[in-house]
Each structure stands twice: as structure tokens, then as C-alpha cells.
Write a structure and sequence with these properties.
Blueprint lengths: L1 E6 L6 H12 L3 E7 L1 H7 L8 H9 L6 E5 L5 H7 L3 E5 L6 H12 L3 E5 L7
Parallel strand pairs: 1-2, 1-4, 2-3, 4-5
Amino acid sequence: MIVYTLGTFDLLHVGHLALLEYCKSLGGTLAVGVASDRVVNSYKPNVPVIPLEERMEMLKALRCVDIVRPYYALEYISGCKALRADIFVVGEDWGAKSHNVAVESYLRSEGKQIKQVLYNQRTS
């Protein structure tokens, strides 16, 4: 089973770790998509403090993470397809934007799961 989640993962902290450990608990292989600076800048006012390659390197060093891959466009279907994700994990701030609705429709049509994580002191 492949679990896929994604994010910026800038200034890695214990909330990120809690999220990733939760994702790992859902299945055998955890794949993490990391937003490129251009993607982040499309929805946040500033680019990340830590460069993409360094963010990816830090995630690769975590024992709960099996696969790390960048994404360069604000769309998630291609990553789910490439990884053959069984479960796609999103945060509570997941909204009804077109790229979110598109991946939800794709996953449902493929019989895959979407899990939404509610943030708390240990997740972000």
C-alpha cells in the first residue's frame, strides 16, 4: 500500500514529523511530494526559506519516509498516478479549489482513499 502526502516542508518541525509518522502508520510505503519554490509562490506571498533540494534531503533522512519527489505544478493527479497511490493524505486546510477537486474525482474514480488530517499541537 502506498500512502502519498505533500506540502512545502519548509523549516521542518515536530508537527511535520507527527504528520509523516501518522501517514506512515496508514500503509507500507510513504511517499512525500515537496512543492517547488514556484508552486509555493503561487499560493503564498513568500518563497520557502530552505531551498527545495535541501527540504527534500531532510525528508529523505527521516526513517518514516520512503520516497520523496518534487512537484512543479499545482496539480496532484500526476503524482498520484506516478506513485500508484492507494491513500492520499491532505490537511484540514484542504479546500474546494479546482486542483483539489480534480484529484479527489480522480482518486474516487480509481477506488482510492483520501484521508484528511485535523491539525493539532503535533501536526501541521
